[in-house]
Amino acid sequence: MSESRSQSGTVVVACFTPGTLIATPRGEVAVEELAVGDRVISRDNGIQPIRWISRRRLDHALLLAHPHLRPVLVEKGSLGQDLPDRDMMVSPNHRLLVTRDRTHIHFDEPEALVAAKHLVGPRGIREVDCGGTTYIHIMFDRHEVVLANGAWCESFQPTERLIHGMGNAQRTELLELFPSLRSSDGLAAFGRARPVLVPDREAALTR
User: Fold this and answer.
1) Residue 7, domain member (yes or no)
2) Number of domains in the chain
3) What is the DSSP letter of 19?
4) 179-207: per-residue pLDDT in tens?
């Protein structure tokens, strides 16, 4: 999971927005309707239960003051044919799965994760000046790749810096569920599901 810190001290995390449809064994379900314990289809580890969900509302005033927090619109087909299969909005640091045909020039792996903010450009991916949004992230027992609006995207990945930057209530809730995250070994268990392209490589993606 990618992260950054705004001037207000807000940690910017990888999140979905309401209306994004997540693939589950019972069909696609809007992310805001999912609950802890619901099962989701993962790319690597089959059906996985959701262990934690967190939501945060960002109002228009906050987005005006900190425009780098604005969501990124990923238009239908902007990642390839029918990828995603309908428009979706994600937080700027939410990583999307990109395959070798878009990365092979500068990356040897068959698949990699790229933050949405680094894909902004002429391909149909752009920042959105909206009146406010809610960011929702879902967490599993490990960093997973899940299907959202027909495109593979990352789940929430905890890091030491991210946990430190959370509000007290959110941090307490997370650490009660995952006490192992207090240690470096526990954090290491949530290693990245895929290699992550750094900005200089992301800039070289084919368009």
Assistant:
1) no
2) 1
3) T
4) 999 999 999 999 999 999 876 644 444 44
Residue 25, domain CATH: 2.170.16.10
C-beta separation of 26 from 105 below 8 A? no
Q: Where are the alpha helices (DSSP H) in the chain?
A: 60-65, 100-103, 160-165, 168-177, 184-188, 199-202
Within a domain: residue 84?
A: yes
Q: Which of 135, 126, 147 is nearest to 17 (CA)?
A: 135
What pTM value is reported for the model? 0.85
Peptide bond into 84 cis (omega under 30): yes
Asked, for residue 104, whether it belongs to a domain, the answer is yes
Q: Using alpha carbons, select from 104, 126, 91, 75 the residue that is nearest to residue 195.
A: 104
**Measured between alpha carbons, how far is 158 from 2 in angstroms, rounded to an integer?**
10
Are 174 and 36 a contacting pair, CB within 8 Å?
A: no
User: Using an 8 Å Cβ cutoff, are 60 and 131 in contact?
Assistant: yes
pLDDT at position 19 is: 97
Domain boundaries, position 131: 21-157+192-204
pLDDT tens per residue, range 7-39: 344 555 779 999 999 999 999 999 999 999 999
| 59 belongs to a structural domain | yes
